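Sequence only, no structure available. Ideas?
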Amino acid sequence: MTSKSQIIATIGPASKEKEMIKEMITHQMDVARLNFSWGTYEWHADTIKNIREAAKECGKMIPIIQDLSGPREQDVNGHKFGGEGSVNEQITTEKDIKDLEFGIAENLEYVAQSFVGTAKDVAFLKNIIKKKGGNQKVIAKVERKLAFENLTPIIKEADAIMIARGDLGNEFPLEQIPFIEKEIIEKCKKYKKPVIVATQMMLSMTNSPTPTRAEVTDVAFAIINGADAVMLSEESASGKHPLEAVGMMERIILESERYLMKKNQKNIL
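Reply:
I predicted one. Tokens follow.
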């Protein structure tokens, strides 16, 4: 039995070899993510080849997300990007456009857009993809206060939403993050858009073969609250136990889905 909710695993130095990717697919990795904040085009091309070959040999379709770095390292309007920001800031950088051209040439399935502030940002990126002959779906990353304030139009414009809790935790008091996550999931459900919960889901597994009890609860409640996918970052990209992280995530999702099924049956009766 495999879970309905999907597992997105970031592929990095610890997991880029074809045999490891095949093992991760066997352990129910559904989608691969490539982080374009680092790595050469040669490295990414080699990794894409390994993902595609591994998927073919496993008889599965594994879509790839190209996660654009956005303006994290550059000045916008003369100041370091971040904080509440302005609706007039341009978040798509020259590097993003170059990276996007590479992603289109490689026929990647999804593009994750970093530091989205408004629906116009998403529309701008979609337009660039179209102009350059691509057909990639756009995942808007909600990681800024500005994005949370403009949530409904962003959800309507994007093909999917990623709750990027790392940067959200720099914009809101940490104790508010669980409720912001829940609200974003509920709104995505309302507009029938897929939603991904990301960042530090099982961070301790970067070094440990087992997660903490709190991490297990975090993944479970993301599924119970309605997330369509949960994501591994460092755990699968550079951690010591990428395979165990994927396998454990699948176990938690399956148990959460069993719980939801039982709960629904009780409600019906």
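The chain is about 50% helix and 15% strand.
Hope that gets you unstuck.
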